[in-house]
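Bug #77: duplicate submission created two jobs. Keeping one. Sequence:
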Amino acid sequence: MPKAEYARYVAIGDSQTEGVGDGDDTVGLRGFADRLAEHLAVANPGLLYANLAVRGRLAGQIVAEQVEPALALRPDLVTVIAGVNDLLRPGFDAARVAGRLEEAFAAFAAAGAQVATATVPDIGRIAPAARPLRPRLLALNAHIREAAARHGVVVAETGLSDVAADPRLWAVDRLHAGPLGHARIAAALAEALGVPGSDDSWSHPLPHRPAPSALRTVSTEVAWAAGFLGPWLGRRLRGRSSGDGRSAKRPELLPVLPGAAVAGPAVLESAPGIAEPAPGAP
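Kept job's structure:
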């Protein structure tokens, strides 16, 4: 069973953990890990939080680059969420990718930290072009669950929630959660960890809204392919990554200050529970 109290929370991973889709490089990225830290701080005054995630990283890179620095921070709670970048690559092997994640699970568990992870939602329900990836996704989730069970890792089953297919939870690129999606992921992890005040409301559906017209759907798909799919493929062909030249946004353990406005990496906005944007937010 997860502990009730935490003093040091460290997040490792890729763009989702970094917070891409929830803010930008001008105002700063928030993301589910920041939001989870805010929620934890309500129940754990004095919580320290670090985020070592860097966008574009593959599972093997995350293990090689982030695990040792994270261990050096002596965390008692770690989130390890990754694998989607691997899933999008040719030659993907679910067992191999999950095996790299299991290396991280084992290292943190051996150090006495509680580890939490999450399963991957079916992105094919959001981006039709990604539907052929569904077998890969299901295989990865299955291996993650098995690896987690071997090391006492808490799993937030975001991959099984129907609400994860609601476009309002996703950023316009459809590969990253939007503000509402990041809030739901944080709430799912909080529930899985048994954080006081958490519940299953993260999995509840949003208010119904009419489906877009066929013409609107087609125009949206064309715009998405031109604006996001094309550039992504271009980077792959050039051997480039969105994370080239980037480093962790919050490499040191810093206090989480409940009730403060966002003002750089050391200060996180907080409110009772986990605040969500309005249902119509992107």
